[in-house]
Amino acid sequence: MPATPDGSTPARVRDESFPMRGWGLPEPGELDRVLVVSPHLDDAVLGCGAFMSVHPGVTVVTVFAGNPPAYPDPMRLWDVQSGFGPGDDVMEVRRGEDRAALAVLDASPVHLDFVEHTYNAGDKPVAPRVIAGGLAPTLQALRPTLVLAPFGLANPDHDVVHRACMQVRDELDDDGGTSWWLYQDFGYHHIPGMLAWRTSSLFKRGVWPTPVCPEIDSNDKRKLAAVECYPSQLHALDDDWQIRAKLATHAPEQYWRLDAPPPGWEGLSAAD
């Protein structure tokens, strides 16, 4: 914005109440009690590790951390890629990896008992409403000031967790006591069109995802050390997604605030 004729800064730019000045920055108190919702045992660290590295005390709630009633025979391909063999308690190993990884980042794990879709008959994912029924009381008990939820891209488990989070966000309706951000599902957000599709669908329903820039660790050492605590998953993630090559680029994490449009901007959702 140009200066006034006398060379001074226009009053509305100096005015702290001018809302545009704060767009993109965390609000006061927003980061006091942060909760990350993770679909699987590794997603929070992959997507938010640099954030957690400089914000100790984060609680990570992993949705699909439960054991199946019985492990499939023959074994599912992902478990074979991960180096497991017949008779291994895959999920117990993975929960141990998660506890070790979060300890590196001074974060605390909460493991829910839902079962990943590829352990279910017909690869059927758990319904979002069922997940929401387990997630809502967890959030109410922990009383976060900020929830970081996944965009929920591509993977059916990620998709239903995202939808469950949106349902919980709508149902709790706590008069602004909890903020909601989305984080990008690491690996899946590189799939062409996936991130744009989800952003567009939220935008059209009146929930505007807008990039926000909290402090994150500019040095990835702690995040990478935490990622290395998931040795079983790195085997499969490398096979399918070249995950180490992508982590090696030190690409910054990105977070998106969920909120209503600024007053008067609502019509933009329907604009061509």
Description:
The chain is of the alpha/beta class and 272 residues long. It has a single domain, classed as Rossmann fold. Helix content is 37%, strand content 12%. It has ten helices and seven strands. The protein has a seven-stranded mixed sheet, with helices on both faces. Helix 2 links the parallel strand 1 and strand 2.
Fold blueprint:
Layout: H1 11-14, E1 34-38, H2 43-53, E2 59-62, H3 77-81, H4 90-104, E3 108-111, H5 128-142, E4 146-150, H6 156-172, E5 179-183, H7 194-204, E6 208-212, H8 221-227, H9 231-241, H10 243-247, E7 255-259
Parallel strand pairs: 1-2, 1-4, 2-3, 4-5
Antiparallel strand pairs: 5-7, 6-7
Sum this structure up briefly.
The protein is α/β, with parallel strands linked by helices and 272 residues long. The protein has a single domain (29-261), classed as Rossmann fold (3-Layer(aba) Sandwich), CATH 3.40.50.10320.
